[in-house]
Write a structure and sequence with these properties.
CATH superfamily of the largest domain: FAD/NAD(P)-binding domain
Bound molecules: flavin-adenine dinucleotide
Helix content: 25-40%
Structural class: alpha/beta
Radius of gyration: 22 Å
Strand content: 15-25%
CATH class of the largest domain: Alpha Beta
CATH topology of the largest domain: FAD/NAD(P)-binding domain
Number of helices: 14
Largest sheet: 7 strands, mixed
């Protein structure tokens, strides 16, 4: 029997974790190096009072095939702790309410029927949204040249309330980028994958646990029982080369001999590690072209009896964009108010922001008591800005150095910065390494 090969994965975000799982289940000994003291990266557990919440409330959809398969692998033989619900969106505004729910029809009829039956829009607006979807389907959800989502919506006369309560919340939720900057090409990819193939693709998928219990916790056991190691608090500080071939890693703890490495660090961290290597100048140039958008999550702890009556609602006209009820994670009374992308909220101190968010919530739910506690998480580089033309600059997993691959949500998956983008990229890098090992 040939002895197992050995691969180093640098970075324990979901891209690195997915790569590690794919390698380990193919008889590869993985050494996973993570700079911080915990796994999960931008999708990790953080403490709030005596419970674990997430560094930002995350939502998945049924079209996240690789992510759902990863959860299946890590939680076998039990079902992964997630809840799936058919697409249903409620948006509240001071002047109107908007509601859309997908009926049990095959895709894409479920979307078309949902739009036609939506409440809160005029008949003309609903017809206009329908026309837009049909036109995009005719064009196979692709464009000759990338433009902004704002420009695309303008061309198809998606104005006023239609944009305010449908397209803008969808764009911010999926691309975390304002309409004027956001890439229509990436937005259309998301719409195509979520709405056109199977009805279940548009399901909303919620974790029933905090994100730490969903992937990082079971992963450690998965890797270690297959002969690998998970090393926390070990930052990779430099790559070592022998000509055009990778030969090792320097870390904050010890040097490692390494002939195959997946760098699953964020674009800016990968840039620092590759910028001095002459063969990686093109990659370094691509990595330096990314810029970033924040996501701010305000957790509010109400009495356990307080409930939204549904898992999430959207809000427009204030700072709060989405309000999640974490009752579904076994945390009754904990609400997560999510604010995507740059905006004035980033200039407010936490106390003022909490006051605004609480008052916005009270205006829609006047019978709720005041929250007992709050906790604000600001992730300044939550996602890359998914700007026009971004796909042309996103690098592939292979690099110009033998033995070095990259992974991360920013790589060339066609997806915005999401869990699915990260997992897909990790899987792709792992499969490229496995091919190289054959
Ligand atoms: C607040 C917030 C809300 C979000 N909401 C959603 C959502 O609802 N749905 C969704 O699909 N996506 C969401 N996302 C996006 C999603 O979380 C990210 O796209 C995904 O987690 C990125 O994973 P990654 O592995 O590519 O990168 P990261 O998670 O950034 O992982 C990189 C890892 O590398 C480590 N590292 C860096 N440098 C080094 C080094 N030198 N040596 C060793 N380790 C290093 C870091 O510590 C980190 O753990 C959200 C993100 C945030 C921040």
């Amino acid at each position: 029997m040939t002895p197992p090969s050995s691969v180093h994965v640098v970075g324990g975000g979901w891209a690195g974790l997915a790569a590690a799982v794919e390698l380990a289940r193919n008889n590869v000994h993985v050494t996973l190096l993570e700079a911080s003291r915990q796994l999960g990266g931008r999708a990790r557990r953080v403490p709030f009072d005596d419970i674990g919440v997430d560094n930002g409330q995350h939502l998945m959809i049924g079209a996240y095939r690789e992510t759902l398969a990863l959860l299946q692998a890590l939680h076998a033989p039990n079902a992964p702790p997630v809840l799936r619900a058919p697409l249903s969106l409620t948006l509240l505004n001071a002047n109107y309410g908007f509601r859309l729910a997908a009926p049990r029809l095959p895709a894409p009829l479920h979307l078309l029927a949902a739009l036609l039956l939506a409440t809160g829009l005029s008949f003309t607006q609903r017809l206009s949204a329908l026309n837009f979807c049909v036109a995009m389907a005719v064009h196979k959800f692709s464009l000759e040249q990338d433009i902004s989502v704002a420009e695309l919506l303008k061309r198809y006369r998606q104005h006023g309330r239609l944009t305010e309560c449908l397209w803008e919340p969808l764009c911010l939720a999926t691309l975390n980028t304002p309409l004027e900057l956001a890439s229509a090409e990436v937005f259309l990819t998301v719409l195509r994958d979520a709405f056109t193939q199977a009805r279940g693709d548009s399901d909303l998928v919620f974790s029933k646990t905090d994100l730490g219990a969903l992937v990082p916790d079971p992963l450690v056991d998965f890797i270690e029982t297959r002969g690998g190691h998970v090393l926390l608090g070990e930052r990779v500080t430099a790559l070592q080369f022998d000509g055009d071939t990778l030969s090792g890693l320097e870390t904050s703890v010890q040097p490692h001999r390494a002939s195959r490495v997946i760098l699953a660090t964020p674009a800016y961290a990968t840039h620092r590690l590759v910028q001095e290597q002459p063969r990686l100048q093109q990659l370094a140039g691509a990595l330096s072209s990314f810029d970033y958008q924040p996501i701010c999550t305000v957790y509010l702890k109400y009495a356990p009896s307080v409930s939204l009556g549904q898992m999430l609602i959207g809000m427009t006209g204030g700072f709060t964009q989405w309000l999640f009820d974490r009752g579904h994670c076994g945390q009754p009374g904990i609400m997560a108010a999510v604010i995507s992308a740059h905006g004035n909220h980033m200039n407010l101190d936490n106390e003022t922001l909490v006051r605004h968010v609480t008052s916005e919530i009270s205006s829609h739910f006047p019978h709720w008591p005041l929250p007992l506690r709050n906790f604000v998480v600001r992730e300044k580089r939550a996602t890359f800005t998914c700007k026009v033309g971004i796909n042309a600059t996103r690098p592939d997993e292979a690099t110009a150095i033998n033995g070095l691959w990259i992974a991360g949500d920013y790589t060339n998956t066609g997806y915005p910065a999401t869990l699915e983008g990260a997992v897909r990229s990790g899987m792709r890098a792992a499969r490229a390494v496995l091919m190289n090992l054959r």
